[in-house]
Amino acid sequence: MSNAKTKGELSATCKTFLMEWYAQDREQIHSKYIMKGNLVEIDLIDFMAEQIGLGMAEKNEVTVHNEWMVGTCDVITNHLIVDVKAAWSRKTLQQQAIDGMNPDYEWQGRGYMALYERPTFIVFHGLMNTPEEANYDGEVVYDDLPDNERWVAYQVQRDATIEQQIIQRVIQCREWLEEYDKKIVATLGKIH
Predict the structure, then answer these.
(1) Per CATH, domain 30-158 is 3.10.20.310
(2) How far is C-alpha 79 from the chain's CA centre?
(3) Cβ neighbours of residue 61 under 8 Å, at least 6 residues apart?
(4) For 82, 101, 129, 138, which has the most beta carbons within 10 A of its beta carbon?
(5) Are 93 and 125 in contact (CB under 8 A)?
(6) By three-state DSSP, how is residue 12 classified?
(7) Over the stretch 44-78, which tens digit does the pLDDT of each residue have?
(8) Dist CA 151 CA 82 (whole Å)
(9) Contact at 8 Å (CB) between 112 and 166?
(10) pTM (two decimals)
(11) Nearest CA to 180 among 67, 16, 70, 6?
């Protein structure tokens, strides 16, 4: 039996995520990288707004959902959704510039555009100072770098065809979960 995924089949990673979601067993991930992102988020939003010409921007706190998706983007304007990502170091920012847009962020942005009904999504990677509490009591300062060496951003336009593909994948996940639930209910708490 082959482990190869046939076209249209859910990936092993997707199935693992669905099993964890079903079991309500998702672990909270803690790391210095996530801590830095949380600590510098507001400053990064201000930096992003200045760099891409928004002037000022506020952190969005409104979560939206529809029948297929749920999400809370970082910044919303009349025509644009922006999500900010804090680079850990100069090296990680430069690698992000070489690697291009992370496909996971693209899909996240497509969901946001559908949910907030906006035509454009930008993921903005910025290099902010690393607070000492995120780095074993050692602050790392990047303020001395020119602004243009401290960020890279990628833009995606809304596409209704791709949104329909997302909806079809959600339907497929729900069908898989329905079958998985039947197997669990039929098996747990019984002698076999």
Answers:
(1) no
(2) 20
(3) 72
(4) 82
(5) yes
(6) helix
(7) 999 999 999 999 999 999 999 999 999 999 999 99
(8) 14
(9) no
(10) 0.86
(11) 16
